[in-house]
Write a structure and sequence with these properties.
The structure is a single chain. The chain is α+β, with helices and mostly antiparallel strands. Strands 6-7-8-11-10-9 form a 6-stranded antiparallel β-barrel. It has a 6-stranded antiparallel barrel with strand order 12-13-14-17-16-15. Strands 1, 2, 3, 4 and 5 form a 5-stranded antiparallel beta sheet that branches. The longest helix is centred in the N-terminal third of the chain and has 26 residues. It binds 4-(aminomethyl)benzoic acid (4AZ). 4-(aminomethyl)benzoic acid (4AZ) binds next to strand 16. The site of 4-(aminomethyl)benzoic acid has 11 residues, from strand 16.
Length: about 425
């Protein structure tokens, strides 16, 4: 082989060899260029912001307060509408998703702010694309019967991808992993980024309690975590699915315990905690949504608890985050004499199983009990508060009812 190759080379004129090398280099350069075009520019997401006004709504309940369910429904209906519009359009292949980032209720109407994400391969000017998107939205909205939207209210604007990405990520209650069902007590570890709002509150660097990220600077947790430990300087918060190493760590600036919490009483077991500097939301660190004050969650519905707490009563906290699927238990069931009787007061609810086993335990306190709506948006429904032992028969976990304290949270955090 070696001889024949040498002979072939010797038979060619130098200028032909140079031409061949040049040709080869050109082919390689074009191939690299094409690959880069499809892999890099072809993958680039484009973000567009749209607002429109839904009219003829009767989203007010009898009490005069807007009903959270209906507002939440409106968010989901708007997202479904935008999905349907683009999936059934000429931009079908380029449409990725949309997310309602703000819903502003007015009397019998609501303004919707939505971010739409597209992926276009060609380098067509954005003004042309913006016009296409607006004309599709306008045309389909005119024909929709599900919601009454004034086409003159429809606006579309291009966003920079950095702003678009940050705005989408800043949204609450969204995560980027599929659900894997495990357990806390006698359970398995949680998937990375599955519970991006979970935090660990540490006193002198020792894990004490769970907490939940509700904004880029505020956490919700249990008041009892700060019993005899009220100095914010001795507290830190870490994020991520392991305590060691932490994904991110912050100093606690302010601890606001409910002013009516009086240990050993278990009512008002809620606190909000401010840390600094603020976090930038990523796939792994993200805030959960807070339910409206009037939201209620159906007994027997499936919710999830997560935490670094002990596996058995009196056991040690865990380095890896764990999760458990539990069910909300009605007050009627939980207030039975053989369960907790009159110990279940206002602003509390039970979750778990009367058969025992799946439960929160020491070290899970202050951490989240979350549930999702049908658009896969997660809400903080409860805060791990107390229980008689862990995982015992007829002794489910007891949680602070977040909706009951929703206005208190606003009064302290502005959220
Ligand atoms: C605790 O001691 C604790 N089984 C938290 C939750 C439960 C029990 C005890 C619920 O922090």
């Amino acid at each position: 082989m070696m001889h024949r190759a040498a002979g072939f080379g010797r038979g060619l004129k130098p200028w032909i060899i140079a031409l061949l090398v040049l040709l080869l280099l050109t082919v390689v350069a074009v191939a690299i260029g094409l690959l880069t075009h499809f892999l890099v520019s072809g993958q680039k997401m484009e973000y567009y912001h749209s607002t429109f006004k839904i009219s003829d709504l009767r989203i007010n309940s009898n009490s005069g307060q807007s009903s959270p369910y209906q507002l939440k429904d409106l968010r989901a209906m708007s997202e479904n509408l935008v999905d349907d519009i683009f999936i059934d359009s000429a931009l079908n292949k380029h449409y990725i998703k949309n997310q309602v980032v703000r819903l502003t209720p007015e009397e019998d109407a609501a303004t919707v702010d939505v971010i739409m994400v597209f992926q276009f391969p060609s380098a067509e000017p954005r003004t042309v694309r913006k016009r296409k998107i607006r004309s599709i939205l306008n045309e389909k909205i005119r024909n929709t019967r599900a919601l009454s939207i004034n086409t003159s209210s429809v606006e579309v604007n291009a966003m920079s991808s950095s702003t678009g990405k940050l705005t989408v990520q800043a949204c609450c209650g969204k995560r980027v992993v599929p659900l894997i069902v495990n357990r806390i007590i006698s359970g398995e570890t949680a998937a990375r980024a599955a519970w991006p709002w979970q935090a660990s509150l540490q006193h002198n660097n020792v894990h004490q309690c769970g907490a939940t990220l509700i904004s880029n600077t505020w956490l919700a947790t249990a008041a009892h975590c700060f019993k005899d430990k009220a100095n914010p300087r001795q507290w830190t918060v870490s994020f991520g699915t392991t305590i060691n190493p932490p994904l991110m760590k912050r100093n606690i600036r302010r601890i606001v315990v409910h002013e009516r919490y009086r240990s050993p009483a278990k009512e008002y077991d809620i606190a909000v905690v401010q840390f600094s500097p603020r976090v930038t939301f990523t796939d792994n660190i993200r805030r959960v949504c807070l339910p409206e004050a009037s939201a209620s969650f159906q007994p027997n519905s499936t919710v999830y608890i997560t935490g670094f707490g002990a596996l058995v009563y009196g056991g040690e906290s865990q380095n890896n985050l764990r999760e458990a699927k539990v069910k909300i238990i009605s007050d009627d069931v939980c207030k039975q004499p053989h369960v907790y009787g009159d110990d279940i007061k206002f602003g509390m609810f039970c979750a778990g199983y009367l058969e025992g086993n799946y439960d929160a335990c020491r070290g899970d306190s202050g951490g989240p009990l979350v549930g999702k709506d049908f658009k896969d948006t997660w809400y903080l429904i409860g805060i791990v508060s107390w229980g008689d032992d862990c995982g015992q028969k007829n002794k489910p976990g007891v949680y602070t009812k977040v909706s009951y304290y929703r206005n208190w949270i606003t009064s302290k955090t502005g959220l």
